[in-house]
């Protein structure tokens, strides 16, 4: 599962952030969103844990902004920055408890480089420096994650309305390299009614009910990896970092509010959640599963035509 959660994003981050790498799909170049989750609780807790039966809920706040694309000859650059905060609330507050989550912050920059090499072929390079922390201690090098995605994409069809990309994702964090493959699929029907994207680990399929209204399905694997160095569990084992993850699956509805301003809502189930604690040697010290729960999401975006 650890490897699966790091499988790229070959361009998947653009679904959440820039949405401007391909010419096919929705281009939400700026926006804000909030995702609320119903109450859940941890399973597989150590015997006698203070978190046993302590239900919690959490909200996720996101904001992203893309700078104007740059062009150097045939090469295009798409810069973007985003911020995410996960805010946890427990029935019984005990912020000193080692395993109790509080707030997690994530700041991410995305710089996409795209260069055409043939009529329907392009090479892609994406740099994704990230800082993730609960900010309970001063920011350090262990709060930084170096990310990079490199690949090629090809368009198919007379109208070039299908694009498939393949590539490699390289991540360095907590003194460990992860190298994994990736795939992306971007499709728009000939009549313009259906649009679909699969950028692992994210899926979006929408039907254009009218020029101002869309309905469809949405799915994603969301995870946040952050530093917990200098913590020791009750058995004396050192904890270096943690990862909170969940799979979201639901339906979506998008409505144009005014010109380029859109309102989007989603609702569904958050399932297969987990909260993992790792040693400096990348061994799993604790793996707490999270009970399934409902979620709802609302966002306002500025969308290019």
From TrEMBL:
Entry protein name: DUF6268 domain-containing protein
Lineage: Bacteria, Pseudomonadati, Bacteroidota, Chitinophagia, Chitinophagales
Residue stretches making up the DUF6268 domain: 89-277
InterPro entries in the cross-refs: DUF6268
One Pfam family of this chain: DUF6268
